[in-house]
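Notebook entry, structure prediction.
Reason for the run: the old model in the group folder had no record of what sequence produced it. Starting over properly, with the input documented here first.
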Amino acid sequence: MTQLSKTEQVLKEMDNYGLDILALSEVRWTGAGRQNLNMGYTILHSGLEKNQEAGVAIILSKPASKALTKWTPINERIITARFTGNNAKLTLVASYAPTNDADDVTKDSFYNTLQAVAKDIPSHDLICFAGDFNAKVGNDKSYCPEVLGSEGLGEINENGTLLVDFALTNDLIIGGTMFAHKTIHKYSWNSPDGRTHNQIDHLLINRKWKPSLQDVRAFRGADVASDHALMIARISLKLKAAPKTSPKTNPAFDSAKLSTPVIRTVFALTLSNMFKALALDDDTDASLESTWNTIKEVYSQTAAATVGYVKRPKDQWLSERTWNLIGDRRNLKQQLLNGGEYNDTVLKNQLYIDLDKLVKRSARGGKRNLLEEKAAMAEEAAKRGDSRAVYKITNEIVGKSRNVNGPVKDASGKTVTDPSEIAEVWASHFEKVLNRPHPLDPPDIPVTPCLNLQISTEEPSDLEISQAACKLKNGRAAGTDRISVEMIKASLSICMTVWLTLFASIWKSEKVPDDWTKSTLIKLFKKGDATKCDNWRGISLISTPGKLFAQIILRRIQTALDSHLREEQHGFRPSPSCTDLIYVLRMMIEESNEWRQKCT
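New structure, fully documented this time:
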C-alpha cells in the first residue's frame, strides 16, 4: 500500500466486487488514523510510528462508514471496528499474524494481545476476525470439529495450531473450511514462482452467528499485483447508519469566486433585490434577533445560488494510459490463471512482471506531471502576489496533512477513538487551556490617571462602516453565520442601509446577536505526537459582521487615544511602525561598533 497507485487499485477492485468492508494486512503505513479516500471510501489504519513494517487497515464503503460507531488501533498487527446493524452490532478485528518461522515470543505476544481484544468485545455482537494469519489449518476436521470444517487445504502447521486454539477458546469457527469450493477457490496465497499455493488468510466468526455466514471463497481475478488472493465472505447482516453524536456542520461558501467581477456583480444585485423585497430597512419594529436572522438567511440563500459551496476535488493523477496498463495486467493474470503449457506460463509470468513495472513507471510519471502542474500554479500565484494560493499549493505538494478527527489520548494516557469520547477529550483539554487559574501573587500595577477621551457615541455611519470593512482582510474563514469578508465587501455599497439598520438596532439596545457571542474552535497541528492534545493549538472562528462592528468601535477608541500617546510610541497606533524603530536602533549599533563609541 506504500507504492504509488496501490490504494487506487485496491479501491477499484473493491468497487468491482461491490464490497462494503475490506480488511488489509501488511499495509506498511505509519501511525494510526482515519482518512477519507476517493469514491466515498474511508480507511482506518494502524501501524508503527516510524518504521514501514507490518500495519493493518480496514477500508469502508460509504454505507459502512455511516454505520461505524467505534474503531480502535491496537498496534501494528491488530485494529478493531464496530458497526451498527439492524439486528445486531458487528465487530471486525483485522489482524496480521507473524509468519510461521517467527520466534515463539513474537507469536505468543500476538495471540495474547488478540485474546485481550477478544475478551473486551461484547459477547452478543457478531464477531469477525479476518486477515493474514499465516496459518495452515489443514483439511482434517477431526482435529477440532468444533472449529474446523472439512474444506481446508493441506496439513496444519504451528501457526494453524495456535489459530485453532484461539478459535476454540473464544467459541469461533474458521469460515474458509466450512464451504465446498474448487481447490483454486480455497487457497489465498501464491508463491512468486506460481508453483506453491496455501490457505493462510482466514475469517473467523462466533459460532452462534454461523447461520449468517453464507460463503467464504477466494476470487483470483482481483489484481493489485499482490501474491495474496482476494478472500470474500458473504454475511447476512444489513448495516444501518449509526446515530450522529456531533452536530451537523454547514458547508462553507466559495467566497473566492467573488473576486470575479461578473459573479461579484450578480451576487450584489441578487442580494439587493432580496432585501428590497423584504423591506428590511422599513421594519423599524423588528427585534434585533429577527433583523439579524433575516440578514443571515438572505446572505446564505444568495451565496448558495451564486457562488455555491467549497468543493475539494481529489486529484485524479492516474492517467488513462495507466488504467489501461492496469487492465492489460489484469487480463494477463486471468490468462495465467486459466493455465497452459509450462513454457507459455513462464513467458506470461515474465510478461506480467514487465507489465507491472510499466504500471509503476506510468504511475510515477502521472504523479510527476501532477506535481509539475501544481508547481506551475504556485509560480503563477507567486507572480500575482497571491501568497494564500502559494501556501495552499505548497501544502498539497508536501502532503503532510493531519487528520483532525483521529484518535487522541486522554488525561490518563488512554487512546480514545470513539467520536463522542474524542469530543469530550478535546473539550476538557481546551477548557483547561483557555481557563487559567488566577495567579497566586497578582502583579502590583500602579493606578494611572483617567484620561478624558473624546469618543463619539453616535450610531455608526456609512463612512465608518466602509472604512472598517476595508481594514478586514480577505481569505479569512467565516464564523457560524458563514458570512465572509468577501461577501460583505462585494455588497457593501448596495446594501449599506441594511448594515446601518442592524448596527443602529445594536447601538440602541446595547446588545449583540447571539451568533456573535459564539465561535467555532479549530484545531491546528504543531509537531510531535498527533495523539497528544498538547501538540495542537486552537483558533476561534468568530462572526465576520461582529468583527466589522468591533472594528468601528476600535477605530473610534484609537482616534481618541492617539493624541494622548507619546511621540516615541510606535506600536499599537496607525502609522508609526516598530519596524522603523528597530531599523534606527540597528543603524545606531552598527555606527557605534564602526566608530567604537558607546550609544547614549
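Summary: The chain has a mean pLDDT of 88.
The old model has been moved to the deprecated folder.
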